[in-house]
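Example record used in the benchmark description.
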Amino acid sequence: MAILLADSNALRSPNLVGYLSSSPENLIALSDLTLTEMLKKNALATARGSLRIVSLFPAQTLVLRPTHEILEERITRVADVPRLVDIPITDQVRALSQDIQSQPTGLGLTLRMAAMEQDHARRHALLTAEVEHMIAGLVDAAKDFRADEIVQLRTGRDVTDTTRGKLLELLKETVREFIVTNQQPDRRSPMTFGEAAKMFAFRYSLCVTIYYVIWVQSGRQTAQSLERRVNDVVDLQVAAMGTFFSGVVSDDQRLQRVSISARQVLRNWGAYVGSELRHAFPGTPEIQR
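Model output (structure tokens):
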């Protein structure tokens, strides 16, 4: 069975029809933030377009539990993965995908979509507030690297053990900050690598570290709009969640680079990663790492 995390653009891809129609064992999963991106504005029209293909294959769509609900989950094997799925919301989205295709839209559904839009607009506003200082954090992290080490990260050539060590320390610090801020505020004892790698916090932090390297390689741009930064955080969540599944499908090359790199690093470190089945999605391009 293949379960691929689909971002918002993949939901509208003609290749999604080929993937879902080729086998009932081919599934897609949607993160809670992907739903928020879909429903935060013009929810009725956006969801109708985004869920049109889903409405043809509703039984092959899953929705994942919100991130804050899965932080303490330890995923070590394929049998653990169903714990990440939100069954009630999956049922709701499957039904919604079909209900919303009918036109004209009834009053009840119109009011329901308006309420969902209000809720997800609030969630998006909270997320925006959280990531407002993201670029400043990247700039601060860059100060720990000498000029020659930045060149190593940018080119990927002749990377020294010292530079690799600094990246590992950046990863450890990111994990510590995430866990204390979002998960276990009173934690004082260290967590072993083996324990941390089972959890979302570690995988998200790994994706952030990889994103940092890509940011350096792309010229350390600091003029990104706030909306672009929010989109990047959504992508990082999708990439991190995707490590538990068969991969990520998206037209976004940066998201794919983060996803593929994170999966490879975790696999090299002996952590559980879902079977590599991204190739099951028709038209999947090779990604330049």
